[in-house]
Amino acid sequence: MNANIQPPLFHEVNEDVILSAIGEGSADAITCVDADGIVLSWTPGAERMLGYSKDEVVGQSIDVMLPKDIRESAHQTIKDQMSGKTGVIHEESVRLHKDGRRIPVLLTRVPLKKRDGRVVSLLAILKDVSEEKKLQKQLERLDAMAKVAAKVAHEIRTPLGVLFLKSDLLVERLELTFEEWGKGDPGVYKQKVEKCVYDIQKQINRLEEIANNYLHLSKSRTLDRQTVHLQKFFKELVKELQEHYPAHVVRFDLELDENAKTMDADPQQMQRVIVNLVRNSIEAMQIAKIKDGVIRLCSHQLKDAVQLEVIDTGPGMPKEIRDNIFDPFITTKSIGTGLGLYLVREIIQNHKGEISIETEEGKGTAIRIVLPNPA
Asked: Distance between CA 264 and CA 308 in Å, rounded?
């Protein structure tokens, strides 16, 4: 071999030749862009990943493969790299396939410089991380399912334990009642038996609530939309609520706007929403030992929507709870699934509505629901 023959310098080799050699068998997309974001090179890997042929994209702006929400920031990063303000970047991003699909990618973009240090173009390597994202979501879903299973087991164990103890106690009370009836004050025995029965029923209701919450969480979110007459809806609902919560427990006030005549909603799901909010208010007042509690159920006609309100005279919520109160498994109660308000928000969002909360410690809570009027 002639010792005087030297291999060509890297910068003397045509850039397209280098990229073609690197990218021919690579699954990654390898491209080159200039300061204006114009595509200069396009490898077979890029074509396989994003669906565009070399002829379709070379000489075109990268905007064709960028979602609108990241175009401005992407061009700014290109300018920063071309000016030398930013060096190599390595970040997660998104690109658009020719068919419109969003493809999550891991982007590495390197400034290519001449001998004088001037940046002339940017070499970008895009790695498709769709499968990794899918696996991550599956792992997150499995983790969430494990947490739900643990929560269900914990929530069911508590009322079952109470049911066992109370039923055992009830048997003893009944035996004592039949043996001693007439020897003392029958009213005392009656009260003790009624207390046991009441506690058992309370825990059965608790189990039913747990089952309903998790059942709703797993069911289809389809709505049976109807034209619901608000006056009738609230009056019938309050009548049912008063059967469960008599006046000595809480007072219900109705403040219904005569102009708010109807709402376009699933009546059963909206009833579930109001009942859940009322139950939370009553339990909060009971825990805080607030007597003469009042819950106001209100309706208002807005310009393009109907607003419903559940306002209580309860203890309010601390800020750290209020900010996350609609998240799953967040609860202010010593026993609770933490799904009640999460499901309430989900139902409202399925109705294309909005829900907000206004609360302050010691000054009660107001929850407002805004539902769009029928088109």
From this structure: 13
| Angle, vertex CA 90, rays to CA 89 and CA 93, nearest 5 | 110
Distance between CA atoms of 59 and 82, rounded to whole angstroms?
Answer: 18
Exposed e or buried b per residue across 107-144, where buried means at least 16 C-beta atoms within 10 angstroms of its C-beta = bbbbbeeeeeeebebbbbbbbbbeeeeeeeeeeeeeee
Report residue 157 as tokens.
């164990």
For residue range 118-142, what is the model confidence (pLDDT) as tens digits? 888 999 999 998 888 888 877 777 6
Give the side-chain half-sphere CA count within 13 A for 81: 26
Kindly list the structural domains of the chain, giving each domain's residue range(s) and its CATH number in brackets, ordered by start: 10-128 (3.30.450.20), 134-218 (1.10.287.130), 226-372 (3.30.565.10)
CB atoms within 10 A of CB 294: 16
Instruction: Write down the residue that tokens 């004592």 correspond to.
Output: 176
Predicted TM-score of the model (pTM): 0.47
Contacts of 215 (CB under 8 A, 6+ apart): none
Q: In sequence order, what are the residues at sequence separation of 6 or more whose Cβ sits closer than 8 angstroms to the Cβ of residue 180?
A: 189
What is the C-alpha separation between 375 and 228, in angstroms, rounded? 14
Answer whether 371's CB lies under 8 Å from 355's CB: no
